[in-house]
């Protein structure tokens, strides 16, 4: 192998050095990714708990304020975790790590949207229900934190609009559940169109309308597109379930006692 | 607030993004075209074409690619690199491979990340803006190993029995380099898993040559 002397320039040492540097770079990136994934998992779990907490709220009880307070505290607790993510990613482009915190973020958006609704549903009617839909802008505001070392600066957790859409799409599932569960108490209302079930349905319909347009104009990869299509299908199913509840409430509301009606509604929506 | 108002900003945002991505995709398509031209040029090496002419033809196409990268850089503002990275990541890996191959043919050297970045007219470091992402560079090296393993076989066929030994040394170095990395379960890892087969193929060629006493 006498002719191979020209290869000597790239000696084994050089290769070691070169790839040693690559290892450092990759390790640093993977570590950061892993840290973000861990926090994101916590955010997901806590957001799910917040959603359950919101489902347990009894609207008729006087303790409504109290429970809402509890929910808000939980919400702040989750925000603290998201702040950690933002701080971790302070010096890098957050878009590089979107996949690491995407699951947590979507769950957070879902929980926040749900909380918003419960908090404010008494202030609106079916016509202006859109005013209590959590907007992209509001989410961005939530995810702007003040920098601890320099209070004049803000640390932002930036994310693509798809994340917001996927998060907000999920809330319709929770809305649908609440719609069924609250149907009996809705019956007690004099004016059905002011009942919780009707408001929930209006909310889900509004979201569904908007989403069915977005699905067609959103420009995403093949994999994400499937995800969007599936979300839309679930949403459509949710809308129908809600609408069925309203239908039954209106049509048969006068015919049966409330508890039997609720059982009928449950049965109908399980199909 | 009505439904329309609430979501109109999102709608326009999605529309803008769609148009922007289309612009990026147009340039990426041109880059793909460059790569296809390079592939045609490289096919020559399996048929005993002069190395120098392959390299000079290759460099001409790469200069074209350089211009396309310049267009891409002009399109993107500061914070958009990672947002749209996936759009050009594939083709950049391939063009990185092409650059590495040219450098190897010219000098039997392993092209560094800096060299490749320079050949493509982009930066080598993330801090300096539009850069050659490490994954793409490494992916390019793995593509190179695959192509060289094929070439080692064809070298023997066309009567060059020295080149396979050089390829063996060279790919061995790439292999030992990759052993230093802690790879995750991603596309790079998958590519890397193929490296051992490329290595094996080259070893086989070298073995076949030495057992027959060729090159003694």
From TrEMBL, chain A:
GO CC terms, sorted: cytoplasm; nucleus
GN (gene name): Tsnax
GO molecular function, one term: metal ion binding
Compartments in which it is found: Cytoplasm; Nucleus
Pfam families per record: Translin
InterPro entries named in the record: Translin_C, Translin_fam, Translin_N, Translin_sf
Major localization listed first in the record, in broad terms: cytoplasm
List of residues binding Mg(2+): 110, 174
UniProt source species: Phallusia mammillata
Keywords, in A-Z order: Coiled coil, Cytoplasm, Magnesium, Metal-binding, Nucleus
Similarity comment: Belongs to the translin family.
Residue stretches in coiled coil: 54-81
Protein name: Translin-associated protein X-like
From TrEMBL, chain B:
Signal peptide: none
Binding site for Mg(2+): 147
Keywords: Cytoplasm, DNA-binding, Endonuclease, Hydrolase, Magnesium, Metal-binding, Nuclease, Nucleus, RNA-binding
Gene Ontology terms: cellular component: cytoplasm; nucleus
Claim: Glycoprotein is one of the keywords in the record: no
CDD domains reported in the protein's UniProt record: Translin (cd14819)
Function: Exhibits both single-stranded and double-stranded endoribonuclease activity. May act as an activator of RNA-induced silencing complex (RISC) by facilitating endonucleolytic cleavage of the siRNA passenger strand.
Record text on subunit structure and interactions: Ring-shaped heterooctamer of six TSN and two TSNAX subunits, DNA/RNA binding occurs inside the ring.
Name of this chain's protein: Translin
Source organism phylogeny: Eukaryota, Metazoa, Chordata, Tunicata, Ascidiacea
Recorded name of the encoding gene: Tsn
